[in-house]
Amino acid sequence: MSEVLAFEQVSRVFHNGAGVTDLAFAVEPGEIVALVGLNGAGKTTLMRLALGMLRPQSGTVRVLGQPLDAVPGSAWVQVGALIEVPLAYPELTVRKNLGLAALLRGADPGCVEQAIEGWRLASVAERRFRRLSLGNRQRVGLAASMQHNPRLIVLDEPSNALDPASVILLREELLRCARAGASILVSSHHLDEVARIADRVLLMNAGRLIGTLDTTGRDLERVFFERIRDDDEQRQGAEARR
Predict the structure, then answer these.
(1) Residue 24 sits in which domain range?
(2) Which of 10, 80, 151, 191 could make an SS bond with 145 (beta carbons 3.0 to 4.6 A apart)?
(3) 5-13 and 19-27 as β-strands: parallel, antiparallel, unpaired?
(4) Residue 58 domain-assigned?
């Protein structure tokens, strides 16, 4: 299979009724797939399923061509991810945190200095992580998730807390990774930004994928909300007929 990440009719529903149902899509090498939807649509749950942080109740998630249960532990070094908040040791410096991230993935130690330069972290490289601003913490997390040139990159709202200059850095890094052959899944609420880089934009609502969003037209936000409203009306109508 060419897909680095594939969902095959995947469902995971929690006790409160929230969750995701019947998800089916794939991300191929060199492709950037963006996931958009309202808060609570299920985007983070989908990404946790993609990383094995949650297991599906039905269906199959394939990572690096293998079902989740068959992916060897050693293969996860080929994955880079940032879900919700950056993971780092608060008392260690930026450089040491990036060094540990590289070591855990068996990466060339030289990637740390490249990441510090590429993400413009030199001015805070010797500062403890806990003393960083939210924006700098996010850049460190992004650097750690991509510095080892992973085959699969999964990022949940990566532009959170970033200033405009850092958003441009993120865009350039994602495009660079895609050109190098990485498969990228990224969620975002910045429609204009994902329209600049995504090969496909998947629209999610109420725990389901409801199609793709055409990013070539004008007024993306209006189209986005119209699609969500139409889906809500169809879903409510179907429930009323039961």
Answers:
(1) 5-85+151-240
(2) 80
(3) antiparallel
(4) yes
| Number of structural domains found in the chain | 1
Burial of 137 (0-12, 13-18, 19+ CB in 10 A): buried
| CATH number of the domain residue 38 falls in | 3.40.50.300
* Within-domain flag for 124: no
- DSSP letter at 189 equals S
- List, in order, residues 6 or more apart from 35 with CB less than 8 Å away: 43, 46, 47, 185, 186, 187, 188, 201, 202, 204
Q: List C-alpha distances in Å: 54 to 20, 49, 145, 201.
A: 12, 5, 19, 23
For 42-81, b/e burial (b = at least 16 CB within 10 A) is bbbbbbbbbbeebebeebebbbbeeebeebeeeebebbbb
152-156 sheet: strands from edge to edge? 79-82, 152-156, 183-187, 32-36, 200-205, 208-212
Answer yes or no: is 210 within a domain: yes
